């Protein structure tokens, strides 16, 4: 026989647990939501693997989740008949944190005075259970396996892993049993009505049946277990959508946008998508992976099928196809023409919906733009086809105000103004004191002030909006010639030109080969001179960004 073996937690896990155990966070209810969501994921994974190996499901109970309170033992168990974990999976999944955002989340948690609130806002998965339990015992059998393993921990610096006793192995025929030895002050979670209340609040739309197994009497189902996206819009209330969003996205905020529809025709599929109202910690992870889940006829297939372009990777939700083959492999997803069609159609719908929101619900749109604007702007250089639409969606800080759209800009053009002007830089403050703005200011011409790193990229291609070219004030010649001055202290055109010719000769002489040309310009009114890039040269801000990245 193999005996128990102790293993340390990964440093981040130990740190997180320390925070959990000592947190004063009062909304401890969420632990149950986290465990149920993991159980539901495990049932999804089982159904997916059973497409190729049907015996995995037919050999035992159907995928379901049981909640078992035991007042005599002071334990609460969450049991699923899902995919289960083998020994290595128990060690890897419950001893380390794989989620890429968690590290930055942890540092925020440690910094913030209200760290406790962040726990509620973002969730901490399995480890949330240590808020209510002082000992957790996980017994698991991977589907199709003869081995059953037990992981146990008191939440300190490590855990134990051991083979299950014969009795425990018999109890767990497939899947995972998570037994919480409840802390004294968490005894309320043994009450049936408490459990029902929490499940109704957080987990009602979990697709698999959740059964409450009372100490006396028959188990009974306490959730509605429907795939919400398959239901008709008219049956659903905003509350239902909020819960579905939080469940599907593992989020705690309100959705700022909800898009629910069914496409019929050449292809049939249901779409339920959301835009979060707050920024997750892993938004800028390098892989730029989307999180929309692909289902085929109610069966979960993949959550990394790239159902939307990367610049919409903040959108969460589900697309459920009626036509794709169930046994589609994850590799085949990449080149599937039906899926490409769905992707195209849904992308257009999402962008149209964002546009409508921008017109009808400024508040909601602003939340999305503030959190994800820099991501959406990646589309300006990646999605040529939709560039105009994305430009119309974009909002800018300009010399005339905040959250300005290009439509507003173009509506407010000065007489004789034929171009849209912008300036790229590090901060709004520094841009506002940039001498390159002076001439525009003297004419009351609005200038877009672009400070996101991504701005240097999309502006490097020629662009126009409503027939008006976009033009950088730090590049080539800017001719404000016909736009009248609004500042009457400025000198007349003739005076200026006469002065300029002599001045230029002197400067050219002094600088010699170090510059390609010296020109008089209408860019400045109060400063004497500035350095600019040539008309075809790279924008100076882009040059700096590229230099930073060693390209
Ligand atoms: P997340 O669910 O975001 O991945 P968690 O901390 O909730 O993070 O869970 C960590 C991992 O542990 C899961 O990704 C999964 O691989 C594994 N896991 C947790 N609970 C179960 C379960 N009931 N059945 C199978 N695997 C599980
Ligand atoms: Mg989880």
From TrEMBL:
CDD domains: HATPase_Hsp90-like. Residues 1-330 are annotated as: A. The keyword Isomerase does not apply. SUPFAM superfamilies: ATPase domain of HSP90 chaperone/DNA topoisomerase II/histidine kinase, HSP90 C-terminal domain, Ribosomal protein S5 domain 2-like. Residues 27-186 form the Histidine kinase/HSP90-like ATPase domain. Its main location: cytoplasm. It comes from the Bacteria. Pfam families: HATPase_c_3, HSP90. It is found in: Cytoplasm. Belongs to the heat shock protein 90 family. Molecular chaperone. Has ATPase activity. This is Chaperone protein HtpG. It comes from Bradyrhizobium jicamae. The lineage of its organism: Bacteria, Pseudomonadati, Pseudomonadota, Alphaproteobacteria, Hyphomicrobiales.
């Amino acid at each position: 026989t193999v005996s128990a073996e102790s293993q340390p937690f990964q440093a981040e896990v130990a740190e997180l647990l320390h925070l959990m155990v000592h947190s004063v966070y009062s909304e401890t209810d969420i632990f149950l939501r986290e465990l149920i969501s993991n159980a539901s994921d495990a049932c999804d994974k089982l159904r997916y693997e059973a497409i190729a190996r049907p015996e995995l499901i037919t050999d035992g109970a159907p995928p379901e989740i049981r909640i078992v309170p035991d007042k005599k033992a002071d334990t609460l168990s969450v049991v699923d008949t899902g995919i289960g974990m083998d020994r290595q999976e128990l060690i890897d999944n419950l001893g380390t944190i794989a989620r890429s955002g968690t590290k930055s989340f942890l540092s925020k948690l440690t910094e913030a005075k209200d760290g406790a609130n962040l726990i509620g806002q973002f969730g901490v998965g399995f480890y949330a259970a240590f808020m209510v339990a002082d000992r957790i015992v996980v017994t698991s059998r991977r589907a199709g396996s003869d081995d059953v393993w037990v992981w146990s921990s008191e939440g300190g610096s490590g855990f134990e892993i051991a083979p299950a006793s014969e009795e425990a192995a018999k109890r767990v025929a497939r899947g995972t049993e998570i037994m919480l030895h409840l802390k004294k002050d968490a005894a309320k979670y043994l009450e049936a009505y408490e459990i029902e209340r929490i499940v109704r609040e957080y987990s009602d739309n979990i697709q698999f049946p959740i059964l409450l197994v009372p100490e006396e009497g028959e188990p009974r189902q306490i959730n509605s277990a429907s795939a919400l996206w398959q239901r008709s819009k008219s049956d659903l209330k905003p509350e239902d959508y909020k819960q579905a969003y939080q469940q599907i996205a593992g989020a705690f905020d309100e959705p700022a946008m909800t898009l629910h529809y069914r496409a019929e025709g050449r292809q049939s599929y249901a779409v339920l998508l959301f835009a979060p109202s707050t920024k997750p910690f892993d938004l800028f992870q390098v892989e730029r992976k989307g999180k929309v889940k692909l289902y085929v006829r109610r069966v979960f297939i993949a959550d990394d099928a790239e159902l939307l372009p990367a610049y919409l990777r903040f959108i969460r939700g589900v697309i459920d196809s009626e036509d794709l083959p169930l046994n589609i492999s994850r590799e085949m997803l990449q080149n599937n023409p039906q899926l490409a069609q769905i992707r195209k159609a849904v992308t257009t719908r999402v962008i149209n919906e964002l546009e409508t929101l921008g017109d009808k619900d400024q508040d909601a749109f602003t939340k999305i733009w503030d959190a994800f604007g820099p991501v959406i702007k990646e589309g300006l250089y990646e999605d040529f086809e939709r560039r105009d639409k994305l430009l119309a969606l974009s909002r800018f800080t300009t010399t005339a105000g905040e959250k300005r759209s290009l439509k507003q800009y173009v509506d407010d053009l000065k007489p004789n103004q034929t171009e849209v002007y912008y300036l790229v830089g590090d901060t709004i403050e520094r841009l506002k004191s940039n001498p390159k703005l002076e001439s525009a200011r003297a004419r009351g011409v609005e200038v877009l002030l672009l400070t996101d790193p991504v701005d240097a990229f999309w502006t490097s291609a020629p662009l126009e909006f409503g027939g008006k070219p976009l033009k950088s004030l730090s590049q080539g010649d800017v001719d404000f010639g016909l736009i009248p001055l609004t500042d009457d202290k400025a000198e007349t055109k003739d005076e200026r030109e006469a002065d300029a010719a002599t001045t230029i000769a002197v400067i050219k002489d002094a600088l010699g080969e170090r510059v390609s040309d010296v020109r008089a310009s209408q860019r400045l009114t109060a400063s004497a001179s500035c350095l600019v890039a040539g008309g075809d040269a790279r924008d100076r801000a882009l040059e700096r960004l590229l230099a930073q990245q060693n390209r």
